[in-house]
Amino acid sequence: MSAPGLRGGIERFGNTVGRVLNRGGSAAAPRLDLSHDIILYLEGITVSFDGFRALNNLSLYVEAGELRCIIGPNGAGKTTMMDVITGKTRPDLGSAWFGQTVDLLTLTEPEIAEVGIGRKFQKPTVFSEHSVFENLELAMAGNKSVWRMLFAKMTPEQHLRIDEVLETIGLKDHRAARAGSLSHGQKQWLEIGMLLMQDPALLLVDEPVAGMTPQETERTAELLVSLAGKHSVVVVEHDMNFVRSIARTVTVLHQGSVLAEGSMEQVQNDPKVIEVYLGDGGH
Ligand SMILES: Nc1ncnc2c1ncn2[C@@H]1O[C@H](COP(=O)(O)OP(=O)(O)O)[C@@H](O)[C@H]1O
Ligand SMILES: [Mg+2]
């Protein structure tokens, strides 16, 4: 890797955490502590909707820097789990910790984003009328300081950071293109890039390859694999071939709980999984 002195501060995981630590600044600001190498703890999470348990005593642990795939039939609770992690839904029971010290259940949605959890929704939300570069520039500012950003000159470090993200998401040659003119897949990558501008320690991605061409799907697999290590990545996806191509550890959800966890091969050969999920027509 070239010029580690200039770029290393952005690239190395330890420094990503350092940036998170520097956010906020108030004495009460939560701090990410990865001293036990676990970035996410979900324990005994139960979410009920009118008595129906969308999540039922769910426990899940994600290691720092890991790429985790979550699979499971429709209605298994995958999106609800993401909603709990990001503060959109509050569980009836259980605990959710980000590292050793950040109790996610005490934070609002914006605070959870601020402390270093980024979420990619299925529908891309790029600014169509702005260029790819400008989209990344706006994302770097976050919501708070867009006004200041418009009048401030970007620092060389900020320029480098945008260049680096453009490279990561494969849109270097499209930096001047209007975001609205991009293909569906390119928009998805741009949105991942916008999340990366905030340097999240944990990135949650819900069904990233829905609607993508096979080439775009393959490129997305490479992209997500390349993010692991620097970031922890949790991917929910239905597309089995995609999961097979990126998976390290796979967690199978069923009726709001973990049914099985292990390598793709282990879960595929697990009789419980075959019965409730893969055996059911393979969808
Ligand atoms: N806001 C809600 N109100 C009522 N039921 C919901 C709500 N959100 C999700 N559910 C139900 O919870 C279950 C889990 O949904 P979801 O988390 O979206 O599953 P998945 O993403 O795995 O398909 C489903 O049965 C769904 O209908
Ligand atoms: Mg879902």
TrEMBL record:
Organism: Panacagrimonas perspica
Matches recorded under Gene3D superfamilies: P-loop containing nucleotide triphosphate hydrolases
SUPFAM superfamilies reported for this sequence: P-loop containing nucleoside triphosphate hydrolases
Keyword set, alphabetical order: ATP-binding, Nucleotide-binding, Transport
Keyword Nucleotide-binding carried by entry: yes
GO cellular component, one term: plasma membrane
Superkingdom field: Bacteria
Protein name: Urea transport system ATP-binding protein
Transmembrane segments: none
Gene Ontology terms for molecular function: ATP binding; ATP hydrolysis activity
Annotated InterPro entries: ABC_AA/LPS_Transport (IPR051120), ABC_transporter-like_ATP-bd (IPR003439), ABC_transptr_urea_ATP-bd_UrtD (IPR017781), BCA_ABC_TP_C (IPR032823), P-loop_NTPase (IPR027417)
Domain ABC transporter positions: 40-280
